[in-house]
Amino acid sequence: MHEQEDELAMEFVKEGCDCHRPVFEPKYLRTHRAGSVKLIRCFPHCCPSHSFASFCTSSIGLTVSSQDVDTVAFLRFQSAATSTLDRGAVISISDVRTSDNVKGEWIPSESRSLLVATTATLFRFNHVHHVGWHYGWMGTSTKAHRTSPHHLVAYVLQRSASSSTTKAAAASDGGRFVVRGVLTSPSFIVMSYRRACYACQKHRNHTASTKCECEGEFNVSSTSAPSPPPPSTSTTSQERPLSSTAIENDLRSILHCVQLTPLGALVRYLPAIESHLARLVLGHNYKVAASLLASLVHASPHRRTCLLLPPSSSHMFVGHQGEQQVDGLVVECVLQALTSAFSNNYRTHFGHYATFLFDKPALIDAYNHWVAWWSSQVTHRLASHSNASLAELARRINKHAASPMLSMSDGVEYFVAQLREVYLGTAGHPSKMPFPPNNALGTMHGLWTFSHVHGGIDLRLPMSLLTVLRCMSMLYVMDIGTAKDECGASVLHVRAPVPLYNTIGSIFVVDGTPRVFRAFPNGESTMTNMSGFIHGDYIANASSPHDAVEVRVFSWPVDAAFAYVTRCRAAVAPGSTQMSLDIQVCRFPVEASLDWSTMTSIERCSHYRRDMEAPVFQGCFVYIPHLEIP
Fold first, then answer.
1. Pairwise CA distance, residues 270 & 244, whole Å
2. What is the pLDDT of residues 234-270, one digit of tens each?
3. How far apart are CA 192 and CA 145, in angstroms?
4. DSSP state, 4?
5. C-alpha distances out from residue 609 to 560, 562, 612, 614, Å
6. Distance from the CA of 579 to the CA of which of 187, 333, 341, 559 falls in 20 to 30 A?
7. Which CA distances in Å does 271 have to 264, 274, 277, 284, 458?
8. Would you state the pLDDT for residue 6?
9. How many CB atoms lie within 10 A of CB 355?
């Protein structure tokens, strides 16, 4: 994009875009939604590919050659017939676009980042992709008006010295600002989706080579739109445009790293990770009494081992200055993954994906959109905190990978299994389940928060960061309900108050019979390949004293020759306000060639060999009643 001749250098950018196309297209289609909302599709352009799963939209960034914290940025769609504001003009802004005012004229940036290397600021717009780009321009029946050009105009503003300094006061006085900079996009035309040709509507069976067949000036197949620049002769294979498969491979490399890296290799980052997770599940005002991650690291027999690298190269990860940066970048990805995964937007998006479960073409599009969404989340985080890209971080990880990565089918299998669970959970309306506490397990009924570890932890094998974070998402806070089923057996419901997915929690029938629980407390689906094991089989028994309950959860290997059993024993002593949760994980041998998917739960559990099990983890976790912090 060409910069405006202005005091501030400004540029429209597409973060994470490697398709070498212009940021803006010469023509956009517009669809009408309820409430007179008119959404521009595929704006500013489809990247990495067109989305059929919902209205196609993406984010846009604005770089400004200033790091003045007093400036703000807004976007506004304008007809070319409307003059842009002059630099130095003093204006008032009242019609700001929000989730409650989706047709607001002024579109505010959702976040800003300081680009240290260039002393610039990056403003992001429509970062979460769930609102879309509304443009309320009213066309007429005249040809000249219907084909009139439009622009997206970016304004960098600074609060007027005479304006109120507080946000509340600014809202009441209309928010007076001084225009510091203006940037106008190349012109484009806006066309009704219903009037567009089949190719421009981008149906699933159209190809990129299909030419526009719209009438007259709406036909842009031979317009003067700039062509993508040819790759430089010095362009390496890693720098070529990324396909969705390449993006998926990059994400898989980072996940592979987090899955195989023990806690001890990231010990200096653990306080920040635990604090971030605690805020997401407990609230910003809650203080964690004791560090769970610190207890696990202290108990680890291999505190400084990194399974990501071969033994001869492990020192490079923790010592060499160039490679030492990798762990920090991986942690940034972890922090962003936690923020995104626990967000209501993610749960809402995934609920929308579930509607395409029985439409195979749409299901494939939904999966690609899901991968692209995660890529954008991680890319934006890396861009905000370093100059590294997702592809560069993946290459640096793969350079020292000591074991094969996850297969491509793992991501698809997880996605489809989770869609199925969310679909079933939505159909069952699981948001609020009755938990009558009038049975023998009633002392456990309620909301419980992790307090501390009692008596230390016995850990025989290193635990990966991914395993620990997944467990913490389930057990850091537990909403426990107790009930009776139609046969009179006690039933235990365990659910995380802030789940990853909108579905049911774990349901355990306490009758000593091998069964399958459908979902983990955090909403993740069971009976699918998760880090090389299939979880879901359990046996639950009531035990004495203090009306305790013990649940044994079995984890069967996909291709290994050993399985795991996790014993969880929960109890509340009479007169106590604390609940203890004793957890023991043991490993036992099994045949590596067994096909667990063809067996019933009883058949799978018959392969359990208690006489040959070896403990690998044991600890007692103490919980207290959860206190809501205002």
1. 32
2. 333 333 333 457 888 899 999 988 888 888 888 889 8
3. 13
4. P
5. 16, 11, 5, 10
6. 341
7. 12, 5, 10, 15, 21
8. 46
9. 16
Measured CA to CA, the distance from residue 380 to residue 123 in angstroms comes to 11
Single-letter amino acid, residue 30:
R
Lowest mean pLDDT among 191-195, 418-422, 432-436, 556-560: 432-436
Cα(61)–Cα(78) distance, rounded to whole angstroms?
Answer: 18
Question: Is residue 30 classed exposed, middle or buried when 0-12, 13-18 and 19+ CB atoms within 10 A define those classes?
Answer: buried
pLDDT of residue 284: 57
Peptide bond into 44 cis (omega under 30): yes
The CATH code of domain 442-625 reads 2.40.128.20
The tokens describing 458, both together, are 């016995």
Q: Where are the beta strands (DSSP E) in 411-532?
A: 446-459, 477-484, 490-495, 506-510, 515-516, 529-530
**Residues 433-469, buried b or exposed e (16+ Cβ, 10 A)?**
eebeeebebbbbbbbbbbbbbeeebebeebbbbbbbb
Block residue for tokens 């069964």: 515
CB atoms within 10 A of CB 233: 5
User: Could you give the count of Cα atoms lying within 13 Å of 304 in the half-sphere of its Cβ?
Assistant: 6
Helix (H, G, I), strand (E, B) or coil at 556: strand
Question: Cα(41)–Cα(303) distance, rounded to whole angstroms?
Answer: 51
Note the pTM of the prediction, 2 decimals: 0.61
Strand partners, 71: 158
Structure tokens at 183: 């940037």
**Average pLDDT over the chain, rounded to an integer:** 79
